From TrEMBL:
The keyword Magnesium does not apply. Coiled coil: none annotated. The keyword Hydrolase applies. Pfam families: AAA_25, ChlI, Zn_ribbon_LapB. It comes from Clitoria ternatea. GO terms for molecular function: ATP binding; ATP-dependent DNA damage sensor activity; damaged DNA binding; hydrolase activity; zinc ion binding. PROSITE patterns: RECA_2 (PS50162). PANTHER family: DNA REPAIR PROTEIN RADA, DNA REPAIR PROTEIN RADA-LIKE PROTEIN. Keywords: ATP-binding, DNA damage, DNA repair, DNA-binding, Hydrolase, Metal-binding, Nucleotide-binding, Stress response, Zinc, Zinc-finger. Residues 84-237 form the RecA family profile domain. This is RecA family profile 1 domain-containing protein. GO terms for biological process: recombinational repair.
Length: 478
C-alpha cells in the first residue's frame, strides 16, 4: 500500500501545492485551498503513448526533437495549420462561424453550458456533419463517447435528430480506455460527453472532482496534439462557474464555447469566449426544435415581439439596434408612464443608472413632465441591454408612452444620449443602419453626424433621419 501524501488544490483555479495557504498563490482567491490525499506512488502519468509494437501503453515521454526553429522554417510548415475541417449546411455554417471558420485539427474545444441547455444535442449534430463531410474519400469515422448515456440512448437521440451519417458511438467513463479504443479508429473527430463523468485511473478524487477534471482534460489535450484529432469536450459549466474548476478547464483547452438559452425560449446561443484560432467576437444563433438545433435565419429580428410585427401599434414601444459579436439584433424597448403617481421607476433589462439618466435628461432637456409619472421600462424577451446605442430607443419609448403617441413599427432608433440631450455616434453605425434597411424599415433615427457620414448609398428605400438632440427627435417622430 502506498504512503499517503497530502496535497492542497485550489477549487477555483486548480493550483496544486504541498502546503496549505489561506489565499491561493495562483489566483489569489481566499479560502479555496482544499485538502486531498493522494497515494504517493500512484501512477499519475495520465494518457501515455500507445506503442504499437509492444501493444501496450507507455508512460508520457518528453519530445526529444523539440528545438528552437527559424521563422522561415516555421512558416513553410504552416500551410497545414490553415486547413480546417469544414462544417457545411446552414447548421454547420453557424457552428463554423463561432469556431472562426471550421474545426482546427488537433484542437481541444470545450462546450460549456447549463445542464439541459442542449450540449449533447449540439455535439451529436456536429459529429454527424463532420462525418458527412468525410464520406467521400477515405472513410474517417467520428466517435461520440458518452459517460452519461448508454449507446442505445445516444442512438435514440440520433434517430430523433434524423442523423443518418456513419458515426461511432461508445459509452465509457475511463479516459484511458476511451483513448485506446478511439486511437485504433484514427477518427476525424472525437466528442467526449462530459468531462464531469470521466476519470483517469491513479488520479485522486471521484469523476467531476477538480483533480480528475484537470487531469482528464490535460490527457485529452495531449491526445489531440499527438494524433491531430480534434476533440470536442462537453462540460456542465455555467458562466458564473458554480461547478468546480471551470477556470482550470478554460486555461487548458484551445477553444471555449458557451451555450446559452433563456428558460422559456427555444433560442440557443453559442458564444466563443476563448479561441486560440480565431476571434471571440462571434455568436451563433440556433433554435431548438423537435428535430434538434436549427440555425436561425432571421436572427436579427428574433427578439421582436409578435405584437410588434402586427399592424396594431401601441404607445410606448420603440426598436433599438444592438450588436452582439459581429451580429446585429433589433430589440424592442417597452415603456409605460403612469401619470398622477409618485415618480417611482421599475426597470427590467436596462441598467438602472442608465435609465435614471435618460429620464432626467428627458425632464430637463426635452421638457417631459416625468416627475409626476411612474415609469416602467422593459426589454422584451428577457435580454439585457448593455450598450449606450440603445439610449435613443429607450428615450423614444418613454416619450411615446408619456405623450400617448404610438411610434410606427417601421422606425428604428440608434444613438447614445449625452447629459445635454445631444445624440452621439456609436460604434459600427454603418452595419447597424444597413441591417435596419435590409429588414425593410421605413425610417431610422440616428445622430446628425451619422447621417452625414453614411450618405445615401444603399439606403434608397429608407429615410435616414439625423437629429442633433432629443428635441429634434421628438419634433420629427411625434
Ligand atoms: P441535451 O442535449 O440533452 O442537453 P445537455 O446535454 O446540455 O444536458 O438536450 C436537452 C433538452 O433538449 C431536452 O430537454 C430535450 C430537448 N431536445 C429537443 O427539444 N429537441 C431535440 O431534438 C432533442 C434531441 C432534445
Ligand atoms: Mg447531455
Amino acid at each position: 500500500k502506498g504512503k499517503e501524501k497530502v496535497q492542497w488544490v485550489c477549487s477555483n483555479c486548480g493550483h496544486t501545492t504541498g502546503q496549505w495557504w489561506g489565499v491561493c498563490r495562483s489566483c489569489t482567491q481566499s479560502g479555496t485551498m482544499k485538502e486531498f490525499h493522494a497515494v504517493a506512488d500512484a501512477k499519475v502519468s495520465g494518457f501515455g503513448v500507445f506503442d504499437d509494437a509492444l501493444g501496450s501503453w507507455l508512460p508520457q515521454q518528453e519530445e526529444a526533437e523539440l528545438r528552437p526553429m527559424r521563422l522561415a522554417e516555421v512558416n513553410r510548415g504552416l500551410d497545414h495549420l490553415h486547413w480546417r475541417i469544414p462544417l457545411s449546411g446552414p447548421f454547420g455554417n453557424e457552428v463554423s462561424r463561432v469556431l472562426g471558420g471550421g474545426l482546427v485539427p488537433g484542437s481541444l474545444t470545450l462546450v460549456g453550458g447549463d445542464p439541459g441547455v442542449g450540449k449533447s444535442t449540439l455535439l451529436l449534430q456536429i459529429a454527424a456533419i463532420i462525418a458527412e463531410g468525410f464520406q467521400d474519400g477515405e472513410a474517417s469515422p467520428v466517435v461520440y463517447v458518452s459517460g452519461e448515456e448508454s449507446i442505445e440512448q445516444i442512438g435514440n437521440r440520433a434517430d430523433r435528430l434524423r442523423i443518418e451519417s456513419d458515426i461511432y458511438l461508445y459509452s465509457s467513463n475511463d479516459i484511458e480506455d476511451i483513448l485506446k479504443k478511439v486511437q485504433y479508429l484514427s477518427p476525424a473527430a472525437l466528442v467526449v460527453d462530459s468531462i464531469q463523468t470521466v476519470y483517469l485511473k491513479g488520479i485522486m478524487g471521484s469523476p467531476g472532482g477538480i483533480m480528475q477534471v484537470k487531469e482528464c482534460t490535460a490527457a485529452l489535450l495531449r491526445f489531440a496534439k499527438k494524433t491531430n484529432v480534434p476533440v470536442l469536450l462537453i462540460g456542465h459549466v455555467t458562466k458564473s462557474g458554480d461547478i468546480a474548476g471551470p477556470r482550470v478547464l478554460e486555461h487548458i483547452v484551445d477553444v471555449v464555447l458557451y451555450m446559452e438559452g433563456e428558460k422559456y425560449s427555444s433560442h440557443r446561443m453559442l458564444r466563443a469566449v476563448k479561441n486560440r484560432f480565431g476571434s471571440t467576437d462571434e455568436l451563433g444563433v440556433f433554435e431548438m426544435s423537435h428535430t434538434g438545433l436549427q440555425a436561425v435565419s432571421n436572427a436579427s429580428e428574433m427578439f421582436l415581439s409578435e405584437q410588434h410585427l402586427d399592424s396594431e401599434i401601441l404607445a410606448g414601444l420603440a426598436v433599438a439596434v444592438i450588436m452582439d459579436g459581429s451580429r446585429t439584433f433589433l430589440i424592442e424597448i417597452q415603456a409605460l408612464c403612469l401619470s398622477g403617481s409618485t415618480g417611482s421607476r421599475q426597470v427590467n433589462g436596462i441598467q438602472v443608472n442608465r435609465a435614471d439618466m435618460i429620464i432626467s435628461v428627458l425632464i430637463k432637456q426635452a421638457g417631459l413632465r416625468l416627475r409626476e409619472h411612474a415609469v416602467f421600462l422593459n426589454v422584451v424577451s428577457g435580454l439585457t441591454l448593455a450598450e449606450p446605442a440603445g439610449d435613443l430607443a429607450i428615450a423614444a419609448a418613454i416619450c411615446s408612452s408619456c405623450l400617448e403617441i404610438p411610434i410606427p413599427n417601421d422606425i428604428a432608433f440608434i444613438g447614445e444620449i449625452g447629459l445635454g440631450g445631444e445624440l452621439r455616434m456609436v460604434p459600427r453605425m454603418e452595419k447597424r443602419v444597413y441591417t435596419v434597411a435590409k429588414l425593410g424599415y421605413r425610417m431610422c433615427v440616428v445622430p446628425k453626424s451619422a447621417e452625414k457620414a453614411l450618405g445615401t448609398e444603399g439606403l434608397e428605400n429608407m429615410r435616414l433621419v439625423g437629429c442633433r438632440n432629443l428635441k429634434e427627435v421628438i419634433n420629427t417622430v411625434f
